[in-house]
Write a structure and sequence with these properties.
By secondary structure, this protein is of the alpha/beta class. It has six domains: 15-108, PriA, 3(prime) DNA-binding domain (GIY-YIG endonuclease, 3-Layer(aba) Sandwich); 114-197, no CATH class; 216-399, Rossmann fold (3-Layer(aba) Sandwich); 406-449 and 520-647, Rossmann fold; 455-509, no CATH class; 656-748, Ribosomal protein S10 (Alpha-Beta Plaits), CATH 3.30.70.600. It contains 23 helices and 31 strands. Helix 2 crosses helix 3, helix 19 (592-604) packs parallel to helix 20 (626-632) and helix 22 (668-686) crosses helix 23. It is globular, with a radius of gyration of 30 Å. The two termini are 28 Å apart. Bound molecules: zinc ion (ZN) (2 copies). The site of one zinc ion has 7 residues, from loops.
């Protein structure tokens, strides 16, 4: 059932359905007093359940399964490992169009097949005789005659093989008149009808691209990967930015296809994949299917159904949810940019990590997994080195003689002190930008905060507006003149005077991408600037347009949040500015340094043109920070060794498995009491592996207060045993009257 409830439910099967039903088929079942849900058949048996009266299945939707047995097994693994209900996985896995829902009695079918209007000649005009009579009668209405002739031509009426003609096709000629069309329909000359067509584009792209020949380091890396796969199921490919990893992926995909296998190619966000999508489409044509969140639900249903058919896509390029697609003969999984934390689903459950889930998916299918990145996650690096679980292949040379950029740290603390900063810009950065633009080159600026200003403040009394629902300050967005909560979306118009002291001296503090954009326009009024963040890329097309304009040089400066750090290659960028590294380094999380290094190294990797070394200016008020130094020297190993030492000392992943227990409630004092009780009970079982309860950095979201209990387990402890004990404590707690309104959920391997 698509519900966050543990276990399975038994329903009686009417005899009329008995012969038709199979495991993996959907059925409509009643639940509670008035509700109906789409359930999936997991087992057909003759055991009477205890404790509840069995109701009957209302309707059988499928006669062939929409879920393969291997998928159900994968769902079960996910629910067990990530401490959620199987129904949570079901809800996340299946496109909404395959889940029918009821509100009361009526069941809504969400999936709407796409239809096309077509036109044919009316029955009475099929014979040659009647057609000639018709020509005569239409002499006085030449537009109708024209349209008739066009239909006869398009449908190949006088030829051997007739063709179907869509109304769109018939009417797209400018001379076609709607009045003439309606006239012909009125006379019965034209008949219209609709047919169901698919949404999946059927480009006739037949592998027309000449394949890239790998250079020597790429070839060597490919051979090493294949060798690794002889012994290990997972291989980490650590290749510096612009080392040509995609070419290696393409070769591996081709080999898998040649063996009759399917390939899953995972990317962290499809928004950033325009360039890679186009490249793969050119190579694999209509063997490639794309699965992503910005597709309509109907399209996703069609891909799901195609993957169950006799002719599935051989290659699926998709975001994290594509691990849920049916695969019939999976042979290879590629996880590109494996370090990205967007692979981790934060909310709602299942809070799974798509990289780790993909490794499990591949393992269950007997397939191999390749993890690729320029800045491996510390977990993957550890697994490929110390732990010896994965193979490791390195690619250290940049493709086409690209040099790694020169990275300079700029001390903005000192510059601020001397009043030499121009808003968010140091003089060095402005000069470098001016030089680059003067030479006709392009600039990328990275500011990891959207909006105009992180907050506004009353200069007189220090009042700061906060969200009414959440424990965060509101971000000022100038374009919409709104203060917005980035957690719940709540927004208000900024007050003219301070609500606390009634002074009219409200100022904004700090800089988001919107302010950076505005400042640039004052320094470089003649230069075209584009901004890429969540606010400017709501639709897929707007994102693609931004990329295209920058690629073609229509825009010269690109400002962006972390979005610009991901897998984009531009040929003419000579300067990259990181406006404020401190924001990343001060984040309160054990992964903050690792993430800061990855982000900065990835952004820096966008600099550099053929035969010319790029320049990266890294603005920070802490130039001596070890991470700044490691980024500057491109010292991944230095970073990872330092972090591993700290993680081991303070008992963090990859040496320990972490589980966060979150508790939510409207009443803060009751919540504190519950959190204390739960932590105490957990300590009785797990001892000093339990920390907290604490307030998380954002301790209230959407009117619910939040507390967090942190658990750290040695890797040798069995996750299923942890699950069992945790759920027992939770059940006991929630069975007590005063605690039963508490919401408890878990985040395993938080990222
Ligand atoms: Zn005030
Ligand atoms: Zn809020």
């Amino acid at each position: 059932m698509p519900l966050p409830l543990p276990g399975f439910f038994t329903y009686a099967l009417p005899s009329s359905m008995e012969a038709l039903v199979q495991v993996g088929c959907r059925v409509i079942v009643p639940f509670g007093r008035t509700k109906y849900y789409t359930a999936i058949v997991s087992r057909i048996h003759k055991e009477k359940p205890e404790g509840y009266a069995v109701k009957s299945v209302s309707e059988l939707i499928d006669t062939t399964p929409i879920l393969l047995p291997s998928q159900l097994e994968f769902w079960q693994w996910m629910a067990d490992y990530y401490l959620c209900a199987l129904g949570d996985v079901y809800k996340a896995a299946l496109p909404a169009g395959l889940k029918l829902e009821s509100d009361g009695e009526e069941i809504v079918r969400r999936f709407k097949p796409k239809e096309e209007a077509r036109v044919r000649l009316g029955e009475n005009f099929q014979s040659e005789e009647s057609l000639h009579a018709l020509f005569d009668s239409l002499r006085k209405t030449p537009k109708q005659l024209d349209l008739l002739m066009r239909l006869l031509e398009l449908s190949n009426h006088f030829g051997k093989e007739r063709k179907e003609v869509s109304k769109h096709q018939l009417m797209k000629d400018e001379a076609s008149s709607a009045a003439a069309f309606n006239g012909l329909v009125g006379k019965g000359v034209f008949q219209t009808y609709t047919v169901e067509i698919g949404r999946l584009s059927s480009s006739n792209n037949q592998e027309t691209v000449v394949k890239h020949v790998l250079n020597a380091p790429q070839q060597k890396a490919l051979e090493e990967i294949l060798e690794t796969f002889q012994q290990k199921n997972v291989c980490l490919l650590h290749g510096v930015t612009s080392s040509g990893k995609t070419e290696i992926y393409i070769q591996l995909i081709e080999q898998a296809l040649a063996e009759g296998k399917q390939v899953l190619y995972l990317l962290p966000e499809i928004a950033l994949t325009t360039q890679i999508t186009q490249r793969l489409q050119r190579v694999f044509g209509n063997k490639l299917g794309i699965y992503h969140s910005k597709f309509s639900d109907n399209e996703r249903v069609e891909i799901w159904q195609k993957q169950l058919s006799q002719e599935p896509f051989d290659v699926i390029l998709g975001v994290r949810s594509s691990v849920f697609l049916p695969f019939q003969r999976l042979g290879l999984v590629i996880v590109d940019e494996e370090h990205e934390n967007t692979y981790k689903q934060q909310d709602p459950a299942p809070r799974y990590h798509a990289r780790n889930a993909a490794i499990m998916l591949a393992h269950k299918a007997g397939a191999k997994t390749l993890l690729g990145t320029a800045t491996p996650s510390i977990e993957s690096w550890y697994n490929a080195t110390e732990a010896g679980k994965y193979g490791l292949v390195q690619l250290t040379e940049r493709y086409r003689e690209l040099q790694l950029p020169e990275i300079k740290a700029v001390d903005i603390h000192e510059l601020r002190h001397k009043k030499l900063m121009h808003g968010a810009f140091s003089p060095d950065l402005l000069n470098a930008m001016r030089d680059a633009l003067g030479r006709g080159e392009q600039v990328i600026l990275f500011q990891n905060r959207r909006g105009f200003a992180p907050m506004i403040e009353c200069h007189n009394c220090g009042w700061i507006p906060r969200c009414v629902n959440c424990d965060v300050t509101l971000t000022y967005h100038r374009s919409s003149n709104q203060l917005v909560c980035h957690y719940c979306g709540h927004s208000i118009t900024p007050p003219q005077v301070c609500p606390a002291c009634e002074e009219a001296d409200i100022r904004s503090i700090g800089a988001g991408t919107e302010r950076v954009e505005e400042e640039i326009k004052t320094y470089f009024p003649e230069v075209k600037v584009a901004r890429m963040d969540l606010d400017t890329t709501r639709s897929r097309s707007s994102y693609e347009q931004l990329i295209r304009d920058f690629e073609q040089g229509k825009t010269r400066i690109l400002i962006g949040t972390q979005m610009i750090s991901k897998g984009l290659d531009f040929g003419n960028v000579s300067v990259v500015g990181i406006l404020n590294a401190d924001l990343m380094l001060s984040y309160p999380d054990f992964r903050a340094y690792e993430r800061a290094f990855q982000l900065m190294a990835q952004v820096a990797g966008r600099a550099g043109r053929k035969n010319k070394r790029g320049l990266v200016l890294l603005q920070t008020s802490d130039v001596k920070h070890p991470i700044i130094d490691q980024v500057r020297r491109n010292d991944y190993k230095g970073m990872v060794e330092m972090q591993l030492a700290e993680r081991q000392m303070f008992r963090y992943p990859p040496y320990y498995r972490m589980v966060y227990v979150y508790l939510k409630h409207r009443n803060a004092s009751l919540l504190d009491q519950m959190a204390q009780t739960m932590a105490t009970r957990l300590r009785l079982i797990f001892g000093d592996r339990v920390m907290g309860p604490d307030r998380p950095p954002v301790a209230r979201v959407q009117k619910l207060f939040i507390r967090k209990i942190m658990l750290k387990f040695e890797m040798k402890v069995n996750p299923l045993r942890i699950r069992e004990l945790l759920l027992k404590v939770q059940q006991d707690l929630l069975s007590e009257d005063k605690f039963k309104t508490l919401t408890v959920y878990y985040d395993v391997d938080p990222a």
